[in-house]
Amino acid sequence: MKLYETLAAEIESQIANGVLLDGEKIPSVRQTSQHHNLSITTVLRAYVLLESRGVIESRPQSGYFVRPRAQRSSPPAPARAAAPLVLSSEVDVSRLVLKTLRSISKDGAVPLGSPYADPSRYPWKRLSQYASTIARRHQEWSVMNDLPPGDPQLIRQIARRHLENGLAVDPGEIIVTVGATEAINLCLQAVARPGDTIAVESPTYYAMLHAIERLGMRAVEVRTDPTEGIDVNALAAVIADQKIAACMVMPNFQNPLGFQMSDERKRALVELLAGHDIPVIENDVYHELYYGDSHPTSLKTYDTRGLVLHCASFSKSLTAAYRIGWCLPGRYTADVEKLKFLNTLATSALPQMAIAEYLQNDGYDAHLRKMRKAFAQQARIMAAAVLRFFPDGTRVSEPKGGYVLWVELPGRVNAMALYARALEEGITVGPGNMFSARGSFDHFIRLNYSHAWNAQIEGAVKRLGRLVAELAAAEN
């Protein structure tokens, strides 16, 4: 098929699956050109082809719309399978993480160690209005409204969001979860068993280590470049040396390093794992918080065998309060849906419906542009402040998205010692020990820069720099 025919087929499939509804406007020619990396001429040919087939129609000065037609049948529900057993863990970072998270809630503490974005960045008031309206509209509520895979309107909006970002997905594959953390846990439970070995980045986000810990599995850390991501050759060597049940990575704006893996490396990673029939769980929660001119691709983009289990969430981009995430589990969809039912039964429908209405009716893109601009600016400010106020020898990451900065302390200053001293002065940091199953990175910290820069935060960074200098001097 030619490029325009392939694009036309994807759009027609999305219409058939109910992602794009009768009478609904489809993405503009320019948007589709940018998101799919196609020429405007190619997109126009695709739209003309669809118009000739009676699938869409153009309206002067308004754009292209789905032409109304007979009601379509919904895709069949996936089959169900048995759930695996759950045992205890051999990886132990959860106590350190819990202690760190509790310290963030201390009165007046500067939350530089928080994993959450500044809540004032989110349209909480608007979402609450939608939730209140929906609650008044539904006088009676049943748990049947909450059952997996999730609210149909939210699933449609998620599928549409993926489409607008250049990835056509089957809505029948989407399972709504209680945040991305549950999605990660369910996906891992679907692809591996207690005692299995899971390959992870080094450093890696601690929620992934928690999942491995909870399910009684083992983590093997793979060398990860701070700007390019996981070393595919190093991973290949690990696979050759031992049996790997699955791989878990964050290819876009990894927490804590902040890198964006190149398309070439993403493709190479997917091809390597597919060659060994190894599933990969992709944590893509920061996908919408990019600093560049266009959204990044995901591993799911290069998946042809259903081995990529894509996990995402609205917690980083829209609201952390509702804890609404989702996953696209590929060939493991039936297993994950069954596990979702057995583990938590359901995800509350009210926040799902509120988010769905916000996505449909409000300016989500405008909100995201505002957040991206602010975070990109604050990333530069925080990095410059750390290099200015911390002793010589300090090194910082160069995040391409998200809102966290990875800092290497000079002279191998102990991160836990700094954590304790900083907490005494009302400042929280994320000690690097949390990001390794082996307790590595004990001279690194993670800093959150999502809050608007002000005198309090600048003062906290100055005090941190003084504490680092004192600890470095004590070691000499």
UniProtKB/TrEMBL annotation:
All residue ranges annotated as the HTH gntR-type domain in the record: 1-69
Family recorded in the similarity comment: In the C-terminal section; belongs to the class-I pyridoxal-phosphate-dependent aminotransferase family.
Record-given protein name: PLP-dependent aminotransferase family protein
Magnesium in keyword set: no
Keyword S-adenosyl-L-methionine applies: no
Annotated source species: Telluria antibiotica
Gene3D superfamilies noted in UniProt: Aspartate Aminotransferase, domain 1, Type I PLP-dependent aspartate aminotransferase-like (Major domain), Winged helix-like DNA-binding domain superfamily/Winged helix DNA-binding domain
Single annotated GO MF: transaminase activity
SMART domains membership: HTH_GNTR
Alphabetically ordered keywords of this record: Aminotransferase, DNA-binding, Pyridoxal phosphate, Transcription, Transcription regulation, Transferase
